[in-house]
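Researcher: Please translate sequence to structure tokens.
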Amino acid sequence: MVKDSNSFPETFLWGGALAANQVEGGYLEGGKGLTTVDLMPTGEERQTISKGYISNFTPKQDVYYPSHEAVDFYHRFEEDIALFAEMGFKSLRLSIAWSRIFPTGEEDQPNEVGLQFYDQVFDELLKYNIEPVVTLCHFDVPVFLVEKYGSWKSREMVNLFEKYAKTVFERYKNKVKYWMTFNEINMLLHRPYMGAGITLVGENQINQVLYQAAHHQLVASALAVKAGHEINPDFKIGCMLAAGATYPYTSNPDDYWKAMEKDRESFFFIDVQSRGEYPGYARRFFRDEGLDILMEPGDVDILKEGTVDYIGFSYYSSRCTSTDPEVLKGAISGNIFGSIKNPYTKASQWGWTIDPKGLRITANQLWDRYQKPLFVVENGLGAVDVPEEDGTINDDYRIEYLREHFIEMKEAIQDGVDIIGYTSWGPIDIVSASTGEMKKRYGYIYVDRDNAGNGTMERRRKKSFYWYKDVIRSNGEKL
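Model: Translation complete:
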């Protein structure tokens, strides 16, 4: 049936999105094991490590690791969830820290203290009728598995992940309905260690390593989906893509083809997770690059039987590319995905392209390609917020950014795209995944914490807090 309403669906899941490694803190508390992000400091070294160039697997002395305390959600979740409820959240996307459940990843029995922590978090959410949307693996691999197996380079990870997934599915089968397997699964190609715990020290055939690891993740995702549906047929289990349409810089057909190839680098993962098989263009890429992706008997059937129910995606910016060497000299560094500066768009303080219409374009691309419900599970503006003398934070720039994106999201729904919800990134200020900074703030709630870890951790409502509350209360009518 053609949708003729100008409104968001009545069941639309407004909310916010968090990741355990950026919000919880509670470093090694409650039996938690060391996780990959616990070895990522702030500053330039963070960038080097995130790309896979790390050989030390214990925290260094006299180095600040922001994840160790983050913003202390581990001890303050009741206070924070109460603030989300005050805004009227319908959903909260968050992740489970794998190493809280299996500290090394190899234990026969899960860590009961870790399981109880998430019981408490989910119970608190449900008390306020907030739907948990849970990511199984959000840039979060037990360090022990990186040291012993090389993380997702090894097939051993598939069974270990399946065991972890089955454990939490069974434990929370009556508390959580919406799940996602891997956060921004395509990040593996761009930040291998951050995205998947992949180290590249001493590796010569980088693409071979990355795409073999990708195969292991895709099989693990499919097995998790299959297991989840067996444990609770009402589960809705999705995949998650770091999305953003790539525009050709000119109408030159070569530019158009390159833009399509760039999009396919990301679509590859979702093609497999949504359709259950490797697309032809990927098989050609493997042949052309001389890659030999090892597959076990039965993998083809596993992928086919474990397709996802919906497509979760993040959208921060569009991208632009060219085949002209002179144009490529003008590439900008904003965001993890490289791009040429688009003369028709603005940029954030961190150089990320601001392109609200790109959200509508990206949503239509994904809907046309997969015909499965979409969930916008990350979107937002990282900016420096400066409190006024009276303590208020007037973040009108964030309100403007979100308003423009909501208008385009509503247009996508009018286009016939089935979008089930929207969880903005970082409803409370958290540690930046890319830089480790606190000054790069996304939240509706200010946290008194600086880049060096100083501050009281006091929570304070920003102007956008009250604006988003009105958006949710009016179901997107009051923007």
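Researcher: Any highlights?
Model: The first strand starts at residue 13 and ends at 17.
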